Amino acid sequence: MSNTLSTTSRSTKHEVTLLSRTQTSSHTYTGKFLLTLPLGKRPPLRIIVDKRNLLANLLMVGLLMLLTGISLATGSAATLSGPATLGALLGHGSALDIFVVRDLRLPRVVAGLVTGGAFALAGCLMQTVARNRLATPGIVGLDNGATAFAVASVVGTGISLAPPAMALTGAAVAAALTFGLTGSIGVRGYRFLVAGIGVGAVFGAITQLMLTRVSIDAANAAYPWTVGSLNARPAHAVSILSLALLPAVLAAIRLTRSLTVMRLSDAVAIGLGVSASRCRLMALNVAVILTGLAVAVAGPVGMVALIGPEFARQISTRNTVPVVGATLAGAIVMLAADLLGRVIFAPIEVPVGIVTALIGSPLLLWILLNPNARTTP
Amino acid sequence: MASFMNRHADSSVMVRLRACLWSGKSPSPVATWGLLMILLAVIALLSLLFGAGAVGPDRAWLALSDFDAAAMHDSEAHFVIGELRLPRLGIGLVVGIALGIAGALLQAVTRNPLAEPGLLGVSAGSAFAVTLAILWGADAATLRISVAQLGALGGCLCVLAAARLQGIGNDPVRLILAGAILSGLLHSLSSLILLFDQYTADEIRFWVVGSLAGRDATDLMPLAPSLALAALLTVILARPLAALALGEHVAIGLGHHPRIVRFLVIVVVALLVGGATAIAGPVAFVGLVVPFAARALAGPDIRRTLWFCLPLGPIVVVSADIVSRLVVQPSELPLGVITALIGAPVLIAVVRRRRLPML
Description:
The complex is a heterodimer of chains A (377) and B (359).
Chain A: H1 2-25, E1 32-39, E2 42-50, H2 51-73, H3 82-90, H4 95-130, H5 142-156, H6 162-181, H7 190-213, H8 216-227, H9 235-262, H10 266-271, H11 276-298, H12 304-315, H13 323-343, H14 352-369
Antiparallel strand pairs in A: 1-2
Helix pairs in contact in A: 2-3, 2-4, 2-13, 3-4, 4-9, 4-11, 4-12, 4-13, 5-6, 5-7, 5-8, 5-11, 6-7, 6-11, 7-8, 9-11, 12-13
Chain B: H1 2-23, H2 29-49, H3 57-65, H4 67-73, H5 75-110, H6 117-120, H7 122-135, H8 141-164, H9 172-196, H10 198-204, H11 224-244, H12 248-253, H13 258-280, H14 286-298, H15 302-327, H16 335-352
Helix pairs in contact in B: 2-5, 2-15, 3-4, 4-5, 5-13, 5-14, 5-15, 7-8, 7-9, 7-13, 8-13, 9-10, 11-13, 14-15, 15-16
């Protein structure tokens, strides 16, 4: 761990000096600028900022705020105007409005934001590590593993804190199984994905098995985990995920530089001073933790892990791995899908898992069947 | 004297078997096939004896040994065996044969050892078609079968189109991945329809998981014509398929028409899978496991593989059905769950091999 970090920081320093040298001679880095933060006596902190990435991320933040506003304002109970929503959020206005916005819609929006971000960041990390655009946690069986364990804890114990921990265990078990079983054939090809589908099918069957064994009440309590929905999610699971998401994003930012060279090949990465196996292990751990905790909140909404990074890659530069962009894009996709599911067939609510599957599956098929599509992220 | 003869015969069988084992040769295919048939008979008997309800194996055995008398003194056992377990066994046999043969045919025509109707979206296509039909007001059992077969045909055509795409046909694993995604898409479309329509949901809820429970023997009757047609076509197509396995040019040279053969095989697969799906719901992985085992026993020739699928399919389905009854007594487990638990490890094992077996 410490070794990886020190390697990263060393390479950072190296590249910054390289950059400043080239900048003094000629302005070849037109798409970037150097942000210098004075740190008193110590040498100033210099950060290379990519203009396009900055613009893309700002755009996504704006979009996210817009979507948050719309999600808070619309719904079957009451559709509020913009100022009324803001007022209700801050505690002004009628008691009903305040209740609807603050107690019903806000938790849901927050749950959508954090789960979307978590799924998409996990997807981005795993795609990069496996060097395959299709290798999302959902496809290689992590979602189903986490779901099986979460359902087991609900129908078995009924302790309210158990699902996040159990879902985490399930994601880890599924990841260990998939990666362990495909050890000899590597993670690059389609075989890895099909083995993951097999692991996922086993866990899916186990979930079904448990749901048929228990009483109807316990089965109903566990049902939301099987379809993927943001409706009335447990508050403590959301807060655990929020607590985990921030360090995960920071760790991913820290790993960005290593991941960027990891996209090329292990040999190139090692040659540039990146410890490939450590980087891979770190990224996988982050992905497993995020997926497990997110499944504990929203159930298997695995397609966000495909759509989010794909969207982020389209609008960011190809030079780096867009970890922040993927997180933001995942949150956008999740919120938009949830809003769509709530609004489009108004009295009936379509679970967000079905909406994302309907959007994501054609995208997945297109990537897979288009002979000219790139397979690497 | 008789006992001596018997013992002598036994020992000679043992000697032969041991000789086979020592020399590394497998027993002759005909003997293996006979053994499989005996095994199937035993499993069929077991499926009559064991159940999730109150009638245990001892009572069932007594009732079976004198079935007409049982109507008098143990009417419950008589009813359970005659009206519940026997039709269920029959449906299990039909579904097993249909799915096993369909899997072998689909694998031969796509030249892909992993091609499985459930994984490739054929079953999902027929389930989606049935959901649509029920949504639009159809509920007759006969209509359901033809609709399911049409849906399966649509799924098959999708698979064939994908297999013809550049780069996909040569990569068996990629085709499976595409099929799995197509299945997921159709499944979520079906769930979307079910959300809207409570009536459809009630009609179909127990059907989509794949189960043999609650099926009537009369459900089998409408299936008979299409199954007979499929059987006839399979018999005719076996030889051209074996030629096609040698390559397209060889098949043309031997006087076959690959396009027509391929199309007819797809029709047979649609008839079989659609029919099986209509009575038992989508049951995945049977079409993978059965031809896999059949090839291991019979070798690469499709004609022999098809013969071995005949007992192996029902063995897998009926024994999975017995397990599904016994695991969660007194309730039952969907059949699709057990077949997934058996089939997914087989899938992983095949995928893990360094070299995929080519067809």
